[in-house]
Amino acid sequence: MKRIDSTEDDKRGVITYELSDGQWVTLDARAVREIGAVTLLRRMKLGHLLPTERVPVMQYGRRVGTLPPDFDPLLARSNSFLFDYRPGDLRREGNAWIARRTLGASDLDCLVGFVRESAHEQSEKS
User: Fold this and answer.
1) CA-CA 20 to 30 A from 38: which of 2, 16, 58, 71?
2) What is the 3-state secondary structure (H, E, C) of 92-124?
3) What SS3 class is residue 36?
4) What is the rounded distance in angstroms from the CA atom of residue 77 to the CA atom of residue 8?
5) Digit-coded pLDDT (tens) for 4-27
6) DSSP symbol at 12
7) Same domain membership, residue 118 and residue 63
8) Is 59 helix (H, G, I), strand (E, B) or coil?
9) Within this chain, do residues 113 and 59 fall inside the same structural domain, yes or no?
């Protein structure tokens, strides 16, 4: 599930996603923020088109962990009072999330849903 960014959508208060079968679906932005795109898509009987594999998170050119397949920056939350997620901390490029260089290693660990890979796992995937 890939979010399609559009200034026209922003003006209309909607968000468009491309699903795994190539179709696009447009959802109300407020509803996405309140209950999430995944919940809305399941209610629309489109749950079978949602991805199931975790998405890699890259930082400094190497894989540092993964996020759930339904991760959406609009709904990103921190599990620590020491770190607040800011728009742009992660951006989607292809099949991976790219972490901003200004994020510290422990900042990513505070992101709800993030799973860090051990150094051993990282070297196996290189």
Assistant:
1) 58
2) EECCEEEECCCCCHHHHHHECCCEECCHHHHHH
3) coil
4) 26
5) 888 999 999 999 999 888 899 999
6) H
7) yes
8) strand
9) yes
Token pair for residue 21? 């079968």
Closest by alpha carbon to 19, among 30, 98, 76, 40?
A: 40
56-113 per-position pLDDT tens digit:
999 989 999 999 988 888 788 889 888 888 888 999 898 899 999 888 878 999 999 9
- 77 and 43 within one domain: no
Please give the pLDDT value at position 90. Answer: 92
Domain that holds residue 117: 55-125
Please tell me whether the overall predicted TM-score, pTM, comes out greater than 0.90 for this model: no
* Burial label, 101 (beta-carbon count in 10 A; 0-12, 13-18, 19+): exposed
Please state, in angstroms and as integers, the Cα–Cα distance from residue 77 to each residue in 6, 11, 81, following that order: 23, 24, 10
| pLDDT value of position 125 | 60
Q: Token pair for residue 30?
A: 């407020």
Predicted local distance difference test score (pLDDT) of residue 126: 54
Q: Quote the CA–CA distance of 119 and 81 in Å, as a whole number.
A: 27
pLDDT, mean over the chain: 87
Phi/psi at 36 (nearest 5 deg)? 95, 145
